[in-house]
Amino acid sequence: MKTPKDPAEILESAYNTALREFRKDKGKSFLANLNVKAKKWVEVVAENCEKQKAVVTALITSLTKKIESPSQDVRYHKVELPGGYSARTFDTKYVTPFLKERMPRIAMKESGWLTRSIEQPHPFTLKPLFPGKISAKHVKNAFLEILNDIEVNKADPWQYLIALFILLIRETSRVQATIISMPPIHIEKEIEIDTVIDYLKSHFFTQYASPGASKLPVIAIHSLYQIMIKELKRYQGKKLEPLMSHISPDIRAGRVGDIEVTDENGNCFEAVEIKHDIPIDAIMIDDAYKKFKHTPIKRYYLLTTAEPYIRSGEEWNIKILISRIRKEHGCEVIVNGLMQSIKYYLRLIKSPKLFLNVYTNALKVDAEKASEIKEEHLKKWSQILEAIK
């Protein structure tokens, strides 16, 4: 097959080839054609794809560019470097949009070159060693070795790109399989609120091996708002904004909380900010006020999973500050523990059983489009659902 030269076609063709190989034998026969070192390098990058999205993006960008322009030394990823090109522009135009469509869990918001570890004005070389502070040294080494292999040893970038896609499909398909296997909820009777609270505590506070559990309470509260928007008169004509990343402040630029409800004019009406294992103090409330003071917001919730939920000795300071904000701005600031608030919201809605369905679906949706919710978080909830039966 003739290798395409248009970047978008290169990506699609490589991905479709990888998909065929994966469906045939999980890619084993294709990967067997790589030498031992090359296979190990690609495996290291793929296995860390959710933690090292920028590296994955940079590698896909470099390989695709090399296929498109064989004479380009893709280690020189900036125009200010000798003989360099704008990898960020190439990524933004071709690679990140492709990943958002095909592998959204590992896609960057805009470009891999917006991370400090990648955007350094130095070539991706082994000697001298690229100084970018990629947190996992073995991933950094694998990334640089692959680029060294295609530039110095003239290895085939097309083979590397297909191999990488095979392994990325393998990684992401595991999560997809877990999503598909999550059992449907069949509850004959209405379920007690305290029972739902117990299920959520078990899901939120299990000691997981991987990060991302702090997103679970956010998804739960957002799920409750999905129901309240439809059922409560207070939210008539209001819109619940979609969830955004819980781990990247840049992504949430312009937002005043993890969860936002907007009014008929698109202005912020109500917001919820959720802290993980941090007691609330006056400084947190003041920081929140700075974010929403120029909006017409009516109510702002600051919730935390910490118990007690207010930092010791801060009770009076918080009371005074909340009163001042109400007088100056008009917004009602409510500080509370997460589980207490969830219990209150569950009393407001018609059916706690409905919440379990909405929350389960929300977990699936979030896991499909982002990488914060991990496979073990989904499996834990599946175990809880099985117990309900």
What topology does this entry show?
Layout: H1 7-25, H2 28-31, H3 36-47, H4 53-68, H5 87-102, H6 137-151, H7 157-181, H8 193-205, H9 215-231, E1 239-240, E2 259-262, E3 268-275, H10 282-292, E4 299-304, H11 315-328, E5 332-337, H12 338-348, H13 352-369, H14 375-388
Parallel strand pairs: 3-4, 4-5
Antiparallel strand pairs: 1-2, 2-3
Helix pairs in contact: 1-7, 3-6, 3-7, 4-5, 4-6, 4-7, 7-14, 8-12, 9-12, 9-13, 10-11
How would you describe what is shown here?
This protein is an alpha/beta fold. 53% of the residues lie in helices and 7% in strands. It has two domains: 172 residues, no CATH class; 204 residues, Trna Endonuclease, Chain: A, domain 1. A five-stranded mixed β-sheet has the order 1-2-3-4-5, with helices on both faces. The N and C termini lie far apart (52 Å).
The amount of beta strand, in percent, is 5-15%
Q: Which percent range fits the helix content?
A: 40-55%
| Total DSSP E strands | 5
| CATH first level of the largest domain | Alpha Beta
Q: Architecture of the largest domain, according to CATH?
A: 3-Layer(aba) Sandwich
Poorly predicted tracts of residues: none
Number of helices: 14
Distance between the termini: 52 Å
CATH topology of the largest domain: Trna Endonuclease, Chain: A, domain 1
Taking Cα atoms only, what radius of gyration do you get, to the nearest Å?
Answer: 24 Å
Which structural class is indicated by helix and strand composition? alpha/beta
Q: Name the overall outline.
A: globular
Going across the major beta sheet, what is the strand order?
Answer: 1-2-3-4-5
- Major sheet: 5 strands, mixed
**What series of H and E elements makes up the topology?**
HHHHHHHHHEEEHEHEHHH
